[in-house]
Amino acid sequence: MRRCLCAVAALFFALPALAADQYAYDGVHSSVGFKARFLDISWIQGRFNDVSGTFVLDREDPAKSSFSLSIKVDSVDTANAARDEHLRQPDYFDAKQFPTIEFKSTTVKGVPGGYEVTGDFTRHGVTKPVTFTFLGGREITAMGKKRVGFATELRLKRSDFNFDKTGIGNIGDEAVIVIDCAGQRD
Description:
The chain is mainly beta. The chain is built from 2 helices and 11 strands, in the order H-E-E-E-E-E-E-H-E-E-E-E-E. It has a single domain (20-185), classed as Lipocalin. An 8-stranded antiparallel barrel has the order 1-4-5-7-8-9-10-11.
């Protein structure tokens, strides 16, 4: 009996622990965009073309999951070269002094249809906590890789991040950030 228990215990401890799955941000199948009101009559829209990040998903214990994104500010693209260059200047993004926008989760909770994510959002040298729901998370295998996708939309006040040192002016204070991102792993 003792040998049997020892054999069962050895087998149990020899089994590999289930690990969280780590995904790299898939820049080809993802986008981070934004929009802000212009003169309160229309929207200026744009995107960032250089984004990286990782997602760690522990489906058994979502609290062990994490999300991080890093956005290169000088990759701003509004389909207008002159406006993009202006947005990189000190009176807007100030890309030389603040070259990245960063998000790193601090807590993750499973919710129906995805994950409630709270984390530190750093923009223009200011870090503030934000909470949003990342919808998605279903894994599929396609094109030789395991893939997962998420989407969210969050609203942030530019003034909360010392953004636009000349005052809010012609562009509204609220910016809408739209994240549609895919992750991949082998």
